[in-house]
Design goal:
Distance between the termini: 57 Å
Radius of gyration: 23 Å
Number of helices: 13
Structural class: alpha/beta
Helix content: 25-40%
Shape: globular
Largest sheet: 6 strands, parallel
């Protein structure tokens, strides 16, 4: 029996709710959007199930940033058909926007939806009935000009809340503006409302996500609010113990934001700040909006107010034109910075970007060698950061992730702590003193009942 809300939809088959399963590739933003699409299905009467539970429908949310997007997409489609050979397979996400026709030719794919269509897929695909040819619904990226509220759901400990989408930057290596469109944001009022809804579900930590999170506040191309104003309002939301900023460009990480996080009891002392290169020459070729001096200044500002703050860094190696001397400049710059860990990416060519046409192509072998060197440096940085925190007291938010009788959680400043499993501690914060790093690189701790200040 249908209602006005699901008119034209066929949520039932043979007297049962049709089952839908999801698979997500890529970033936290993708996970927040997959979760929201899943709730749309459930509101229409579909049953959300696991990937292996013979669903009637698969929705695969793809990424264009990770390497081998085509290969990964094909593999997931193939695995889906093993579990449910007759399932209706739908592909959405960044890769779907960039290469819709290419994806439609993958055996087993029934529909491909672009950035402007993915949140309407239940309506667009109607009864999810297979047709003679795959359906492709992918408008020009200029049509992706509205903001769709999204947040992940199902993990009681942590939720990813989307506050911004798209990007107006023109970095020469990046396809994100082509896959997600121009920068646009939710309103502060709507984000606060979402945070309050999340709090009512019992979640203790919210991670703010976006393509260019610090660019929050653009609506219809006009800046009407700022990310700093958003942070100030979210800090007032009750029953959320922790907020984290997933990633923020160094040129958008203002002194006001740093100072506010330093005194906030809800925003955690943890920043992830993309660098991409420690060579000003390469930063200019990448068309980044800062030089290494500004980046070093941001790190110094953070550490002056929050000495034990965790700082993560994104780095790309092997960009066209990067000589061995340029790479060593990056290596030495990072080695001297007081940062906590690195996310290292060997440069990979992306169609319709400027970088592949630049001179000075770096061999795959050299890209991988340079990446390995920085990953080793990252392990040293992380170890040093953990050692600096031994003997200090923190609170740990424990997760529902039990392995061999042990559970894990994160301190305010993003140190991973392991403890003996105790079901009472799941989704709870515990006051601890960090004592030692174990053989797996995780921090051990002892319980303390001391009242803990954030910094």
């Amino acid at each position: 029996m249908s209602t006005d809300r699901n008119e034209g939809i066929i949520p039932h088959s043979a007297g049962r709710s049709r089952k839908v399963a999801f698979y997500t590739l890529g970033c936290k933003l993708n996970y927040s959007e997959t979760s929201t699409i899943g709730r749309i299905f459930q509101e229409r009467g579909f049953e959300k199930v696991e990937f292996t539970d013979t669903p009637d429908i698969y929705v695969i949310n793809t990424c264009s940033v990770t390497d081998n997007a085509d290969k990964k997409c094909r593999k997931i489609v193939k695995e889906a058909l093993k579990h449910s050979p007759d399932a209706f397979i739908t592909i959405v996400g960044c890769y779907a926007q960039l290469k819709p026709q290419e994806i439609s030719e993958i055996p087993g794919v029934d529909a491909v939806l672009g950035a402007a269509e993915k949140f309407q897929l239940v309506d667009i695909l109607e009864g999810f009935e297979k047709k003679d040819r795959p359906q492709v619904h992918a408008s020009a990226i200029s049509e992706a000009n509205t903001f769709h509220n999204s947040y992940s759901f199902g993990d009681r400990t942590r939720t990813f809340l989307k506050v911004q989408d798209g990007c107006d930057y023109s970095c020469t290596f990046c396809t994100i503006p082509l896959a997600r469109g121009n920068s646009r944001s939710d309103t502060i009022a709507n984000v606060v409302r979402s945070a309050q809804e999340i709090a009512e579900s019992g979640v203790k930590e919210i991670v703010l996500t976006g393509v260019n999170t610090g660019d929050f506040g653009l609506q219809d191309g006009q800046r009407v609010e700022t990310f700093f104003e958003l942070v100030q309002e979210l800090d007032k939301v009750e029953n959320i113990d922790r907020f984290r900023i997933s990633s923020i460009e160094p040129n958008l990480l203002s002194n006001d934001i740093i100072s506010f996080v330093a005194q906030s009891q809800r925003f955690m002392p943890h920043f992830h700040v993309p660098l991409q290169s420690g060579s000003n020459k390469i930063l200019k070729l990448m068309r980044r909006r800062y030089l290494r001096e500004l980046y070093a200044d941001r790190v110094a500002a953070i550490k002056s107010l929050m000495p034990h703050c965790c700082i993560g860094v994104d780095v790309i190696v092997g960009f066209p034109g990067e000589t061995e001397a340029d790479f060593l400049e990056t290596y030495n710059f990072l080695n001297g910075l007081d940062v906590s860990y690195l996310h290292v990416f060997p440069y990979s060519e992306r169609e319709n970007t400027m970088a592949p046409g630049m001179a000075g192509k770096v061999s795959i072998k050299d890209r991988n060698r340079r990446a390995d060197m920085l990953r080793i440096l990252s392990e040293k940085k992380k170890r040093h950061f953990y050692e600096q925190n031994i003997g200090r007291e923190f609170t740990v938010l424990f997760e529902d992730d039990v392995k061999v009788g042990q559970m894990e959680g994160w301190t305010e400043n993003y140190v991973r702590v392991v403890a003996k499993y105790d079901p009472v501690l799941i989704n709870e914060t515990k006051h601890v003193r960090l004592t030692a790093i174990n053989a797996s690189g995780l921090m051990e701790a002892e319980e303390t009942y001391t009242e803990i200040l954030k910094h």
